[in-house]
Amino acid sequence: MTQIDEFESLFKSASKPVFHIEPVTVNRVMVVLDEAAPLSPEYVPSVMKFLSVLNNIEQDIETLIVTGEQYHSVGNLLERIQDFEPDLVCTYRNLRIPATEFPFSLGVFVDVLTQATSIPVLLLPRPDMVNGPEHVLTNTDRVMAVTDHLAGDSQLVTYAALFTQDGGQLTLAHIEDEQTFDRLIDVIGKIPSIDTEPARIAIRDQLLKEPADFIESCRMGIQQAGIPIEVESVVTMGHHLSDYRNLIRESETDLLVFNTKDEDQLAMHGLAYPLSVEFRDLPLLLI
Question: How is the beta sheet containing 284-286 ordered, strand by strand?
Answer without folding.
Answer: 62-66, 28-32, 88-92, 121-124, 284-286, 255-258, 142-146, 169-177, 230-238
